[in-house]
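User: Structure tokens for this complex, please. No commentary.
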Amino acid sequence: MISRLRALWNSVFRGKLLDRDLDEELQAYLELSSAEKIRDGMSPEEAYRDARRDMGGVEQVIQKVRDVSAGAWLDRLVQDLRYGVRTLAKNPTFTVVAMATLALGIGANTAMFSLLDQVVLRLLPVSHPEQLVIVQETGNHYGNSYGPNTISWPMFEDLRDNNQIFSGMFCRFPATVTIGDGDRAAQIPAELVSGSYFPVLGVGTPLGRPIAPDDDAVPDSKPVVVLSYSFWRSYFDGDRTIVGRTIDLNGHAMTVIGVAQPGFDGVELGAPAKVFVPIMMKTEMTPHSDGLKNRPRRLSWVTAYGRLKPGVSPQQAELSLQPLLHGILEMEAQQPEFTRNTTAADRQLFLRNRIKLLPGSDNELRGDMRRPLWLLVALTGAVLLLACANLGNLLLARATAREREFALRLAIGAGRARIVRQLLVESLLLAGGGAILGLALAFLADRILLRVYLPDDAAAAFVVSPIPDVRVLAFVIGVTLVTSLVFGLLPAIRGSRTEISLSLKDRSGALSAGGIFLRRMLVGIQVALSLLLLVGAGLFVRTLRNLQCLGPGFPTDHLLTFSINPSLNGYSDQETKSFYQRLNVNLQAMPGVASVGFSAMPLLKGYAWQNAVLGKDFEGAPIEEQPVLSEIGPDYFATIGIPVVAGRAFTSQDVGPAKYAVINESFARKYFPGRTPIGQRFGLVDEMNPVNPDIEVIGVVPDRKYRDIRETPPAQAYFPYFEGVHFRFMNIYLRTQVDPRQLEDAVLERMRQFDPHVPVVKLQTMDEQIGFSLRTERLVANLSAVFGGLATLIAVIGLYGVMAYVVMRRTREIGIRIALGALQTSVIAMIMREAFVIIGAGLLAGLLLALSLASLVRSQLFGLNPRDPLTFIGSAVVLTLAAGLAGFLPALRASGVDPTTALRHE
Amino acid sequence: MPAPQSDLLQGTLDLLVLKALTLQELHGMGISRRIAQITGRAFDVKPGSLFPALHRMEQAGWLTSFWGESETNRRAKFYKLTKAGKKQLHSESERWERISLAMATALRTT
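Assistant:
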């Protein structure tokens, strides 16, 4: 074994030396041989000549030895590579076109795949992330909930303390807190974590220490904080003396105890946390709600995670957790909080709730992005396939043109295998070049894509490394190998079948007909794929247009919005109320502002405050049927542009103990059918207390969208904000007289003067906000349009190439036809007929393909059917026109053939 | 009449080379000469087949080579059987005897 390796080493790296040795050895042989012949009586000259003749040439022998030596295949590969590079360099246009096509195909694929990888597939950067699961309770929770992945604090404690299946459990709650004071005040995302968070995740702290179970034992007891690495670098300039210092969070002095390991930004990928605080500090971090100290079981708010013991599958764990959950549910169903507002039927349903374990790296953002991103990966796959078909076509054309070369090589003794290998090496070279270009392209594209796709701060946290990770690299190498095999093999096999005598004899034979069927088929495939991509582009672009045209039902231009939360600065309810009242007056006086609307809940942000209502003849409802509620300031409707169709809106005079509401038409239809809504009364269901329906309806507004642009407006009720008891965050809407973007700086300055301690959050125009909410749709629409256009271009060029080849091959025939009196138009018709056979076959295949795949994208569409006839017909027409033009140019040239030259030519 | 080279099977040449080297180490010319001698001049191995075979067998680990001095006081490369080469010779000779016996039996049958 070792001697073989040494022989390989010698023959590869010491080839020159070996050749010299061999040369000397052969010289010795010659001398010995001729010496022998002299001894036998020959003259010295004769003997030497005879010896040389016996040997048959020193060079030839050396070559033969080289062929058997261990590194021969490597030698030949280098030879093939060198020859391949030379051939490619000799035909730069072909090489550039081929590599560019591939670079686009591979680049688009890689960019999409690495986006998918970064946004959807990547696991958390913790030890053994595959063992982490989110513990979800499915079914109706019968209470208030922060989302489907949350459970109540007592439920978490019960699961943590009684399960046998996890090596550890922790929980977290995302919150927004205000850091610092004065000019540096900012709102930052924080993660409230249980004491087991860092140990169970296995996340360390290069500086200081992590939050430990001790820090999280008694409410309000340990004001400590761990910083994320990137936040430590950006906000504190990487100050190594930070540990032990105190920082100001929501007006509370918190001691920094550590800096988390680089790359770890909390457990929600795409929503990086900047600070980690013990969950026992909840009251300080979220002054407006508790959920911890009085241990309410009907408020679910923490996301619970478990780490599976090694070798335990999520299915096993799920199964073993069900009895535990059932016991807890039985106990909860006895509690007055539960029984107060539920029936026996509700109880039955409630007891059927189950534990479901989700992969620990999942979150809602990812769930939303998964389908669109896979869709785009599929689209780029089609583009790559098309690029392959195009390249196969180019290589076939080249192989045809090179038939003489192959024939010559065959004639002087090259094996057919050698020619196949040569062609494969060439296509591998092309694919390799294309892949390297494509990687560069993908790297650039990904940086742009991530910025489009994620909010600014999240995009910054996604580090796109210039060195792609192993998975992406494996993907690229796989794609490259497959492509080069796919497009290289067909021409290679054809090339090796070249008939020597035929090809060398004369030129007319060289333009053999064999390749043309294959080439037509490849162009047909390209047309089919282009149609598929064009249809996709049409569907997605129209979906985006539908969404954009639809709008929320009120004018979105000249509308500026931001949010603030003075309660995070430690302001009391009374102080906050006064703050808002003074701010309302202050902003109304601002130049360029027409009116000011306050709303506790944001518009079109994808979420809402929902609560069951009850009245004389209706009561509670499951969450999907609960009305959407908000608390608003006096001029809200006027500012947003929603007319009041009956009764009146709130005024600043609506004070005092009376309870009023303005409802929308859906609310009126649903709860007061057939009655005049004004003067009707209802109440909000409350788990803790009995409720009187004592809120009086004073006005009705038309239905408008509230949570997002896609929704059908829900039943809605508004309450006057300044009458409430608790004052927290506020969303402020300014209807401006000028372009709202011009006012942004002035608003920031005015807010700073008004109160420098309260940071302004998410200042943007309504159009920008809606635009961002449609980013997935826009990304899909724009990229699919680009891919569709690209595909069409490639297919059209491919068709042109084939038709030009057809015309060239038939020049003589066309010449004869013209000489015999064929009209120009009939020649054009003849060629066009041939072109349309290809186009028609491609279109038909593409249509069938598109029709069968269309239903897969149904969930990504809005306002149109996945088999929308207009889109299908439109795409087919566009493609036919473009492809028709590509066929027409060679046809035109054919009709201009001069019969005498054509006939003399051959 | 020397047999044309192309009639030499690859295995035959290897076996002859191994056999030629059993008594002593030899250089290329020596091997050629020795093969002619032990086969009664039936085989005249030309350098075009001999040297590729020698290099192949060296890589297979059957032979080792070293530079020495020829009978004409010239620097020449000598080949020597290795242990693996001796084993190969042994098993190849057995195989060859079986084949030739079988061939002879086959040809005798009328």
